[in-house]
Design brief:
single chain, alpha/beta, Rossmann fold, five-stranded mixed β-barrel
Length: 318
């Protein structure tokens, strides 16, 4: 049985989804007949406790650690590295290190006792290893105690020259998880899997729309894929690009109508139109709680540009 170890659930999202693993151990352990996924928690102590529990209870033959790491020696963001040796530093460096079972690995990692967010700290730690995380040393230490071989793949979430933005990393967790999944599970990809491997975060309904649009057009979307947007933002931009490419007139009409509706919507009154633009009716929903709300609604309706919007829905872009 193979054990995949992640510090946080965000890093494991793609694996949990694509491997169809079920929770069966206090919501930190997932698995099927062949694979276990452990959400170890952040830091040396959490990892030591949860991993020791797992190895004592289940017949694990190999451990693979996957997760994010900070670059200390100029590695590129989003690059993935197999770890050769892991070191430990808790205020002072430890002289005990562990080497992975991957003989082709060439990058070393330092497990530090706290989060490293400042570029100056990263430069100071670069003398020890190329990457920094918070858990791998504990994984390697416990693995040795239980005589189980281990490997580790780290994706670079932040680089040496910049201050780490933890919120930004949190928002991109699913993108990192997808990249790690495709790195460790190479297979022929369909359109959606290919997009996901490039950082797009696609829901089921969005996938159906994208597949339909790609049958009609295939515009260059590389600038979106290579951007620093979140996965959700990339998907929204891609759908806009596809819709504009398929039917530029309708796209412009929708964009203008959306702008008009947004300008007239309020916290209690919402205007909407038929998504297919087949009917020129405008739907109004309003929450009325007192006379002031009634008056506000009357004023909103009086100034609402109905004729202009209906003209747009008829295709008049003048």
């Amino acid at each position: 049985m193979k054990l995949l170890v992640f510090a946080h659930r965000g890093e494991a999202q793609a694996f949990l989804r694509k491997l169809d693993l079920k929770s069966f151990e206090q919501d930190f352990l997932y698995g099927n007949q062949d694979t276990l996924v452990l959400i170890s928690g952040e830091g040396i102590q959490n990892t030591t406790e949860t991993l020791a529990f797992t190895l004592a209870k289940y017949p694990v033959k190999e451990i693979v650690n996957l997760g994010i790491a900070g670059a200390l020696r100029g590695q590129e963001k989003n690059s993935i590295h197999s770890i050769r040796t892991v070191y430990h530093h808790h205020e002072e460096p430890s002289f005990q290190s562990f080497t992975s079972s991957d003989v082709s690995a060439s990058t070393d990692c330092l497990s530090y006792y706290k989060r490293v967010t400042q570029s100056l700290d990263k430069k100071q730690l670069s003398q020890f290893a190329g990457l920094v995380d918070r858990e791998l040393w504990a994984i390697a230490s416990v693995s040795k105690r239980f005589k189980v071989p281990w490997r580790s793949y780290k994706i670079v979430s932040d680089i040496t020259e910049e201050q780490t933005d933890c919120q930004d990393i949190f928002e991109k967790a699913y993108e990192f998880s997808l990249k790690l999944f495709h790195h460790t599970h190479p297979q022929p990809q369909n359109l959606i899997e290919d997009l996901e491997s490039q950082g797009f975060w696609i829901t089921f309904s969005e996938a159906k729309k994208i597949e339909k649009l790609f049958k009609l057009t295939q515009p260059d979307y590389s600038s979106i894929a290579n951007s620093e947007m979140t996965g959700k933002q990339k998907t929204q931009k891609l759908i806009q690009l596809l819709e504009e490419s398929v039917d530029p007139i309708t796209f412009k009409v929708r964009k203008k109508i959306k702008k008009e509706l947004k300008a007239n919507n309020s916290s209690k009154t919402h205007y909407s139109v038929d998504n297919q633009l087949e009917e020129t009716r405008v739907q109004v929903k309003s929450l009325l709680e007192d006379d002031r709300d009634v008056q506000d609604l009357i004023e909103s309706l009086q100034k609402f540009p109905l004729k202009e919007i209906q003209s747009l829905m008829d295709g008049d872009l003048r």
